Amino acid sequence: MAVGNIAIPDTIYPINGIKLSATAAGVRYKDRDDLVVIELAETANSAVVTTKNAFCAAPVKVLRENFAKASPRYLVINTGNANAGTGADGMRRAESICEALASKAGVDQSVVLPFSTGVIGEPLNSEAVIAGLNEALDNLASDSWLAAAKGILTTDTIPKLASQKVDVADRSYHITGISKGSGMIRPNMATMLGYVATDANIAADLLQEMLSTINEQSFNRITVDGDTSTNDCCVLIATGTAGSDVIDSPEHPHYQAVYTALTEVFVRLAQLIVRDGEGATKFMTVKVTGGKMTQECCDVAYAVAHSPLVKTAFFASDANWGRILAAVGYAGVEDLDTEKVDVYLDEVMICQNGGVAPSYTEEAGKNVMSRSEITIHIDLARGDATDTVYTCDLSYDYVKINADYRS
Q1: CA pair distance 313, 286, nearest whole angstrom
Q2: Distance in angstroms (rounded) separating the CA atoms of residues 277 and 271
Q3: Residue 185: its pLDDT value, please?
Q4: How far apart are CA 149 and CA 7, in angstroms?
Q5: SS3 state of residue 198
Q6: Is residue 43 annotated as part of the catalytic site, yes or no?
Q7: HSE-up of 320 (CA within 13 Å, CB side)?
Q8: Where in the sequence is the domain holding 327, given as residue range(s)?
Q9: Is 7 inside a domain boundary?
Q10: Residue 208 and residue 298 share a domain
Q11: Is the pTM of this model over 0.90?
Q12: How would you classify the pairing of strands 35-40 and 222-223?
């Protein structure tokens, strides 16, 4: 069961220049949508980040090749099968899907980007995907964001969608995005799959810079189980339909407002993945302050967030806070003075100057750890850098879900 605020926005803003559809192609699941197509206007600029997993899936390879050639017009996404670890056959199947969609849509194959998610190491039923393309193309609509959000899910229990409007001077911009992911989450670039679009007119080079930067503070700051997927991809699209004035640098008067809104949408989508972590009962924010540099703060945050001992303690509401200190200690911070480290669980100081805080009580610690949303604040007291990672606890259900994943 997902944790905390998982509500779908009351208003889902259509993005002028984007149409979507969700179709039941029968790739793996019965009686549910598992094929999503997204159509982009010719005016759209796009930015992409992909997994750093060396065993990346066939669609990721094809996507990289096509994105290097042309600006995308169509995104085609199947769930239920990752088409990863499938060798030359997987490449042929990914390419055949792009070829089929390009032929049906009357575009060049290079402007089609494929995405897959699901079981690794099994041949993709590309025939089913191709058979579903006619219906997918016929049903494209600008108001199908929620249907698309549902259509890209695998072990997820909730659709993940965020939408915002931002007004700057006399201009209104809209941003809407979807993501999927629940397990195999320690994105080493992005999320399992994420698609965010805005009607702002943003120059292509700047759009890529914005995605790379925003991604580092959103999809690259979450972990469920520490596993980086073979299929992680994220796309940011700017259709340019909100006006002809191009946002081409951070100095543009509209840049900061659009950047801030985009960041908020990305962080919301990233947090929804953690809130829906497989078997999760707790949503945990790991905030590290007082570092000499951002990277060491990130290293400490991830060491705590990845620790099975920390995660299981939070699941049990067991105030065994020494596990947090152990993770901080092995994070690899050079010359860390442990006698200066303070640790808080929400408002409760549990560790002061490297030892138990005089004010701490077991009852206070257990009370905090019984909450469904908790912040672990670690102060390294060695500088001004800070970073934050989002994670969840590790429950019995996580093991059950992954033990039964292919059945």
Answers
A1: 15
A2: 10
A3: 67
A4: 13
A5: strand
A6: no
A7: 15
A8: 283-403
A9: no
A10: no
A11: yes
A12: unpaired
pLDDT tens figures, 9-51 = 999 999 999 999 999 999 988 889 999 999 999 999 999 999 8
Intervals of the chain under pLDDT 70 = 184-185, 187-191, 405-407
The CATH number for 346's domain is 3.10.20.340
Residue 8 lies in a domain: no
- 268 with 324, same domain: the answer is no
User: How many domains does the chain fold into?
Assistant: 2
CA distances from 187 to 17, 130, 131, 356, 384 (A): 29, 29, 31, 34, 26
Are 218 and 331 part of one and the same domain? no
C-alpha 301, offset from chain centre: 18
Return the structure tokens found at 24: 């039941």
- Which of 297, 47, 270, 261 lies closest to 167 in space, CA to CA? 261
8 A C-beta contact, residue 86 and residue 121:
yes
Q: What angle do CA 257, 215, 178 make, to 5 degrees?
A: 80
Task: Give yes or no: residues 359 and 218 share one domain.
Answer: no
Q: Which two tokens stand for residue 17?
A: 């220049």
Instruction: Tell whether 240 and 298 lie within a shared domain.
Output: no
List 164's β-bridge partners, or say none: 175
Q: Which of 51, 117, 154, 191 is catalytic?
A: 191
DSSP string, 137-157: HHT-BTT-HHHHHHHT-SS-S
